[in-house]
Amino acid sequence: MDTFEKRLKDLEKTFLNLQTKDEKVSALSAFLANEDKASGLPSIQYLSGCPNDSPSIPGLLNSRAKQDEAIQTFMKNHDLFDFDTSTSLIKDTKVSPTIQRLSCAFHDTQAGTFCSRTGTLSCAGCRLVRYCSKECQKQHWKRHKRDCKNVMNNKSWKPQWEVQRRKPSFIDGGPITYPQAPMSGQETFGGGVILWGNMPAINLFGAPGSPAIASETRNLSLAFAGKCFFAPNTVNSLPKDYSGQLAILLNDRNPLVTSRNALILTFLGIMDNMDEAAEYVLHLWYSIFLPMKHAFHAQIALGRHEVLKQGFRGQNVPLTQSSTLSTSFSLATIECIIANMSFNRVNPWTANNALNAVMNGPERIDYRERFYAGLKPSHRVAMEQWRRFGLLLPFSAANADFNIANPSLITPGGQLWMNDCASPLEGWEVPDVLRSGQSHGTTEEDIMGCLFFHVKDQLVEFAKRLRKFHMSITMYDQDAATLPESLPSSLRLFDRIEVSNVMDKQYLGIDKVLATWGPLLNRNRAGSAIISSFINWASNYPKARAANDDSLAAVYSRKLLKLKPNFLNPMDTMSEIITARHVAVLSGLELIYDNSVAFKKYLVHEGAEVAARKVGLRMRVKNEIVPPRWGVKIGSEWTATPPISTDEDWYNKVHLSGLNYSERLVEWVVQH
């Protein structure tokens, strides 16, 4: 029988007749390529350095552990385990196919069987997967059955607290581990670092046709000065034939966030294959595990590039022929960058445990099921899969080559950086996500598959623009209050300044931010503006949130039930138990509550008008770049509330967006 052990012995015999290292590397490369075909798994995983007792988790199969050890031992015995040899072997392997459209769901990794045809027939039971034919669907049923028949994929599913007729821990108290976070509504659980943002990324150019982008040749200068989570949508909104000079300042004082942003930008610019770069960056951004081949191709590109040679401290380093990157980082950020490139720092077993300890901790089941309770059945199954495996992929995508842990999402001590309420969906507009998924052949039910295609499209487009536009990107990791003092003269005038929510009084406050950044606003260009988000203002301010005020909660609960009478049935109103439908009603109160009166009082209390006037600015009465609150149109009155005319509109806003709808957005412009 032609076993792996026999094939390896044959390779040993072949080596006896080889004289040079190049000959041995060539023979080993051919051997690994044949193993690729024999197993259906990427041979490059032999270079991963993963421990031999790794569990059966996505991208790492127990049956390969001994083979990994044997290959690594073989390479060491023949002095082939150095970086140059590994690089040479990786370069000889083909790039793993990237995902362009949703393919047929039938695949059997262990058997090496993959159907590459396009999926067009949806599973009627869940609509989470698609097949090219009835034959493939029948062959895949044994594997798919456990997902399709998942108890959560049932309209009658109820959270455990409701089944057990008890108070949920988010009402009763429960274990308190971390301070309050806006999304969860109460205490949070996990590492506490926000890596993905907690609301959709802001497009600094506003709606199409904005005066800022009316001219394709106008030079523009943008600053993301507060909390900066990489977002390509601002650059991607420019006309495709834009030919001006685009200067971008990115700043975040968190070394982990900044290091991830730096790597994301760098890989999008320096990797030859933009499609591969986009998928790798997507997983570096959002997935707990990374595809080995993409990761090592990224490492090779970085290893030979000037940005690494200058230690991420260079000025005007070319990312592409037309775009440059300048960085001014602290030692802490440099150390984070190095750690985030150290793939063997966290083994897959540790990463898998870290993910499940936070995302599926038994002590947090009520919080988790509160989130599931508002979802459609298929979305519950899709989100549960993401929380189990931590991979941003279409539901049916093969994941066997995701066999190294993402060091940028796991602490050096083997813990997850994020909280259990973190979700990749929060940084994106749900309707846009769904449209992108449909354009690539997936269904709305496969919500994470839709997000995969949407994010990838944005990254590919951004990578193209890095190569076409004249961009100069400058990155800092300083406090927004002191950064302007460090800026060179060439970076002291901006057309748009986005300060995230550092105007919240829990951070710098309105007066400090305007005094610091107001003088840097371009006074000679119409439409120049500072854009600020207020996220935490409502946490303790009177009448800022309907749900936090008993009288308001009663009034707006009745109002909501008049608008959506099917949300509760008569039995719910008489029940002493908090039902999933009760939670849904409470979750939606802020959507119909006009908090503008409370917000204006808050601004007066914080001295906003006086602070703006001191630096020659004013608040816009009607925003022209961003909506005054999420869910309404740009240019809406401050009193506007998001429309919920259809159940689908309500569902997307309340249950998928992650917003609590007390957030406000303000534009500050030059006082004339």
From TrEMBL:
Species this chain originates from: Moniliophthora roreri
UniProtKB keywords: Metal-binding, Zinc, Zinc-finger
Leader sequence segment: none
Listed SUPFAM superfamilies: HIT/MYND zinc finger-like
GO molecular function, one term: DNA-binding transcription factor activity, RNA polymerase II-specific
Organism superkingdom: Eukaryota
Name of the protein in question: MYND-type domain-containing protein
Boundaries of every MYND-type domain copy: 112-148
A Pfam family of this chain: zf-MYND
PROSITE patterns for this protein: ZF_MYND_2 (PS50865)
